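=== Per-residue structure ===
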Amino acid sequence: MKRAIIIGATSGIGKGLAEILVDNDYKVGITGRRIKLLDKLKSQNPNSYYTRAFDITDTKIIVENLDALTTELGGLDLLIISSGTGDLNEKLDFEIEKRTVETNVIGFTCIANWAFNFFENQKSGHLVAISSVGGLRGSGIAPAYNATKSYQMNYLEGLRQKAKKTNESIFVTDIRPGFVDTDMAKGEGQFWVATVEKATQQIFEAIKRKKQIAYITKRWKIIAIILKRVPRQIYAKM
């Protein structure tokens, strides 16, 4: 039986992935800030879920929680970082930007760093993180969100490069969703909004295939190609 940890499993994509993994004979460690939601998920299958409640912005307690959860699971094959935050912030409220950076950069880095070092010592493992199509370009209405997702993309690329040089069975997957019907989807005029069920199933398929980068849903790769090619002068007016 394989063992996985999902960071941010109280709702949305993280919760959906936890349920899929358990259905596919994984033992799953689930984390998040809201212990009641973690316990509710655990009650569905008490023998398959292991819980730890903590906030990823509190980096002083991340390592001890991940170590303890890994011990409870009896090892670790897969770690998924699904925890993240982002708000529309046209007025550039610094507290919103600060919270976004603390979660999507500091907390993310602490967990990714722990996971990679664990897998390198173990000589195998799979790190998966949920970034965003938004990380491909800047955003005037959510500057910190897009910038932090860009950071995640680059950090994961760096870890893939390190993994390649180890010549071990270490894999790093960057999941780049467009709009998914979760609390994170904010703003008007959204299109190609995927259900959580469809998104998580495609993510699970990407994990099984150990893809380096996967757009969710798949047609968002078209948007990614367009975004990358829009000239700066035109993009600035959009």
